[in-house]
Write a structure and sequence with these properties.
This protein is an alpha/beta fold and 448 residues long. The chain has 3 domains: 53 residues, Electron transport complex subunit B, putative Fe-S cluster (3-methyladenine DNA Glycosylase II, Chain A, domain 3), CATH 1.10.15; 250 residues, Alpha-Beta Barrel (TIM Barrel), CATH 3.20.20; 122 residues, Rossmann fold (3-Layer(aba) Sandwich). 40% of the residues lie in helices and 16% in strands. It contains 16 helices and 17 strands. The strands form 5 sheets. The chain has an 8-stranded parallel β-sheet. A 3-stranded mixed β-sheet has the order 13-15-14, with helices on both faces. Strand 14, helix 12 and strand 15 form a beta-alpha-beta unit. The protein starts with a helix and ends with a helix. The relative contact order is 0.08.
Length: 448
């Protein structure tokens, strides 16, 4: 069971120094218990207390990091079965499969798709992170050459796939600095693959054909000194694979069964030959509960929906996507350009800024921090009201950028116009449209 705030407080130094960012140790303890703070924020906690707190706060599913750099993938670390209970922590890594029997032209095209298939959505770059390199030829030289090519021509996190420990060793030698995932340890090669993982400080994937066998193998890996483990239940039937994912998650969370307390890897690429069906299968495991999902190929029409699904599911429902507060200049505005204000909910910002851009009327957009809430929600919650908007406008610096004193507020916040005129003497408060699609016509009329 996780420690309560009071139990955590008893282990803290009780200095109330404020170095952690909150005024008292009790407040910090409550934040730790709620998952709103990290233990490292307290520089004065004793080593003994730190060990107790870290052990007590360790997630039931071990977090595992694969790769390095910008496309490093962190999986696991989950604490709940359902997103509404708290949040899901680490989104699944999406991998494209490349094997050493493919023609060079096909390998090159897959590497190119891996680089090119990325998308901009609500201010975020959505893209895959992983390449699974599979040894199908049983030729260590060919496999090593392919691993070397992938390493030199991409920044991907790498999965090395073979059940031959010698071939895996050759692959690891070619990319050990990239911290690849070694796939796969089985009951037949467990000792060799465990040694390989330990010697190179690489995570190891273990595969079995029953959950009981899987638990036995993870315990053996633990005894061998391997803690960073990813598990494959071995099922390639979608129904059984789905059941396995649920049982593994539930065993770790509800039953505290440590031998299954690891992130999973699923292979839709081995479940069907139909690319669209494969994408549908992958979508199931994005939601429940794949840690790494290996696809036979990447195509925009199937990859993009998976990336958006992943974004939606792994966005913290208690902390909406938010844009940074400030002045946004759209279309090279000047001192006579319109000034609009809105909230920092990302979707609101991108809709409003997009409509301003399409109007071809250069404008200033003031984005106010409302804790990621939309206009109507923020207004109802008292976070987008006159006595907060007024001071924000004054401090924003917009008065130094424009000659006029006209401020356009969203139609949903029209009730704040009177209060804003009191907060901003000398400003004319103008009520804009409620619907973003009406902004272009509004701005053209404003300009005229």
């Amino acid at each position: 069971m996780p420690l309560t705030g009071i139990q955590i407080f008893k282990l803290l130094p009780k200095t109330n120094c404020g170095d952690c960012g909150v005024p008292t140790c009790l407040a910090f303890a409550m934040n730790l218990a709620a998952g709103k703070a990290e233990l490292v924020a307290c520089p004065h906690v004793s080593e003994g207390a730190k060990a107790q707190l870290q052990e007590a706060s360790a997630p039931p599913i071990r977090p595992v990091t694969i790769g390095t750099g910008e496309r490093e993938v962190k999986v696991g670390g989950e604490t709940v079965m359902f997103r509404h209970e708290k949040r899901f922590e680490n989104p699944p890594g999406l991998a494209i499969l490349i094997n050493d029997t493919m023609e060079d032209s096909e390998i090159d095209s897959r590497l190119e798709r891996f680089k090119q298939l990325e998308y901009e959505r609500v201010g975020l770059t959505l893209r895959p992170e992983m390449i699974a390199v599979k040894a199908e030829s049983s030729d260590a030289g060919k496999f090593t050459n392919l691993v070397d090519k992938v390493s030199k021509n991409s920044d991907a996190s790498i999965i090395l796939m073979s059940d031959n420990a010698d071939i895996l060793a050759a692959g690891v030698k070619a990319c050990a600095d990239r911290k690849p995932l070694i796939y796969t340890a089985t009951k037949d090669n467990l000792d060799s693959v465990a040694s390989l993982g330990k010697e190179n400080s690489c995570p190891v994937a273990v595969k079995a054909f029953s959950l009981e066998e899987l638990a036995e193998l993870t315990e053996e890996l633990n005894k061998a000194g391997i803690n960073d483990i990813v598990v494959d239940s071995g099922s390639r039937d979608i129904r059984q694979a789905f059941e396995d994912q649920v049982i593994i998650r539930n065993s770790a969370l509800a039953k505290k069964f440590k031998p299954l307390g690891y992130p999973t890897i699923v292979l839709p690429c081995e479940m069907t030959d139909d690319p669209m069906k494969e994408a549908v299968i992958a979508s199931v495991f994005v939601a429940k509960y794949g840690g790494i999902i290996v696809l036979s190929d990447f195509q925009g029409e199937s990859l993009f929906p998976l990336l958006v699904e992943r974004l939606n599911i792994f966005t913290d429902p208690q902390r909406p996507l938010a844009t940074t507060q400030g002045i946004y200049e759209i279309g090279n505005p000047d001192e006579n350009s319109p000034v609009l204000v809105t909230t920092n909910f990302s979707l609101t910002y991108f809709i409003v800024s997009g409509e301003i851009e399409s109007s071809k009327v250069p404008s200033y957009l003031l984005v106010m921090d409302t804790e990621g809430l939309s206009v109507m929600t923020a207004w109802a919650a008292g976070k987008f009201v006159a006595d907060l908007i007024g001071p924000f406008v004054k401090k924003s610096g917009i008065e130094d950028k424009v000659k006029h004193r006209k401020l356009v507020i969203p139609g949903y916040a029209a009730a704040e116009s009177g209060g804003l005129e009191e907060e901003l003497p000398g400003w004319e408060i103008m009520i804009g449209p409620r619907d973003g699609s009406l902004i272009p016509a509004y701005l053209k009329a404003w300009k005229s």
